[in-house]
UniProtKB/TrEMBL annotation:
Species per Swiss-Prot/TrEMBL record: Thermoanaerobacter wiegelii Rt8.B1
Catalytic activity, reaction form: a hydroperoxide + [thioredoxin]-dithiol = an alcohol + [thioredoxin]-disulfide + H2O
HAMAP family named in the record: Peroxiredoxin
Record's GO cellular component terms: cytosol
Protein name per its UniProtKB record: Peroxiredoxin
């Protein structure tokens, strides 16, 4: 019976990392927007379960408190839930009234769940009527680069999202790899050789690198 219950949960189709991010047109607290309007900027598209909820409120405040950090990195934040635009507007006004903090980025209304389903933001095993806390990082060429999912009960670590942006922008700029726990200023990994000829060349020319072995070499950027 337990197996049958699991199998009865609808499968969710997810967008693919490395593929073009699905475009969409939507109404928001900033008026009508399209994802393709932001080509040339990085985008952090994130969903939240609902307006006027405590964990979501802390997340929106946290995003706003470091909003300039996203702007400095050429990143546009876009929030989304299946609530209506009037609900979004009332919520951001409520946040401002209670905290003095104005939300400086658009929040999409998605009452028909069209975008939520397009991006796989609905997890039926968790809730069929609310979006989970999904994060989609889309680069300046509109390629989907990263997907994160958080459960309804746990707020996101906003500093980790900034670290992810820094890592992605660094690996793009210098054609390198980011090791575990990497932060800006730390050494990056030189991509490993792909052929035996490249391996021999690496072993002969390791000047400027800090190598543990031929396949694991670090450098500063």
């Amino acid at each position: 019976m337990e197996t049958e219950a699991v199998e009865s949960i609808p499968r969710t189709c997810l967008p693919q990392i490395g593929a073009p991010a699905p475009d969409f047109k939507a109404n928001s607290t900033f008026g009508p927007i399209k994802l393709s309007d932001y080509r040339g900027k990085w985008v952090v598209l994130f969903s939240h379960p609902g307006d006027f909820t405590p964990v979501c409120t802390t997340e929106f405040i946290a995003f706003t408190q470091v909003y300039t950090s996203f702007v400095e990195r050429n990143v546009q934040l876009i929030g989304l839930s299946i609530d209506s635009n009037p609900s979004h507007l009332a919520w951001v006004q409520n946040i401002y009234k209670n905290t003095g903090i104005e939300i400086p980025f658009p929040i999409i209304e998605d009452k028909d769940m069209k975008i939520a389903k397009l991006y796989g933001m609905i997890s039926p095993a968790e809730s069929s009527t609310s979006t989970v806390r999904a994060v989609f990082v889309i680069d300046d060429k509109q390629i989907l680069r990263l997907i994160l999912y958080y459960p309804l009960e746990i707020g996101r670590n906003i500093q980790e999202i900034i670290r992810i942006i820094d890592a992605l922008q660094t690996v793009d700029k210098y054609k390198v790899l980011a090791p575990a726990n990497w932060y800006p200023g730390m050494p990056v990994i030189v991509p490993p050789p792909k052929t035996y000829a490249e391996l021999k060349e690496r072993v002969k020319n390791i000047e400027g690198y800090n190598c543990t072995d031929w396949y694991l070499c670090y450098k500063k950027v």
